[in-house]
Design a protein that fits this description.
single chain; about 200 residues; alpha+beta; five-stranded mixed beta sheet; 10 strands
């Protein structure tokens, strides 16, 4: 995960000090007002976006991102879904209201939207239940991610195993299986245990 360099931080600190001095002259403006950080994500190269993260932060934590793609990407990686922080992502500055503060006229709350595109790559997958291969195929996964989150793996497996007897048992991740949920040579194995009801 990339971070803000020391040089960038010092520049930011200087800019923040100047901005703080100016902001203190404005009535009703505080660096500690709450801002809603909203990260919108796309896995189809910007054709559709879905909200992937939403968090309330003080203005001082997000103000420096306005209009700055590199700092926005750092912030998105810092606060985005933890399992996908190593993924190949880019900021889409063409997304409506991306990297600007918008104010909700009804509530008066401000938000900052960061739209990111997640690069996808196709990998082979195989689903094992109690050590037996029951499904395989190809699936798109985020490029740069080497381990699939358990929740996503279970969702994929359940979508592929929606027939008897697998749709009638509870499935859980087999923690003892070596390299389970890990992308190795372009393939991921999802090893599951079927629990009796």
């Amino acid at each position: 995960m990339s971070t803000i360099s020391r040089r960038s931080f010092l520049k930011l600190a200087g800019a923040t000090a100047v901005a703080t001095a100016g902001a203190s002259m404005l009535t009703g403006c505080s660096w500690f007002d709450n801002i809603e950080l909203v990260i919108m994500g796309s896995v189809d190269d910007g054709k559709t976006y879905n909200e992937v993260f939403h968090k309330t932060l003080p203005r001082i934590a997000v103000n420096f991102v306005k209009g700055n793609i590199n700092l926005a990407l750092d912030l998105a990686k810092k606060y985005g879904p933890e399992d996908y922080r190593g993924a190949d992502v880019s900021v889409d500055s063409s997304y409506p209201n991306s990297l600007t503060f918008i104010k909700d006229e009804k509530t008066g709350k401000e938000s900052l939207i960061i739209a990111v595109k997640l690069a996808m790559v196709e990998v082979d997958y195989e689903v094992l239940v109690n050590g037996k291969s029951v499904s395989s195929g190809k699936q798109k996964f985020p490029n740069g991610v080497t381990k699939i989150p358990e929740e996503d793996a279970l969702e994929l497996a359940n979508s592929k195993l929606n027939y008897p007897p697998y749709n009638q048992v509870k499935l859980e991740i087999d923690k003892a299986y070596t390299d389970n949920l890990t992308v190795v040579n372009g393939k991921v194995t999802i090893a599951l245990l079927a629990l009796k009801g």
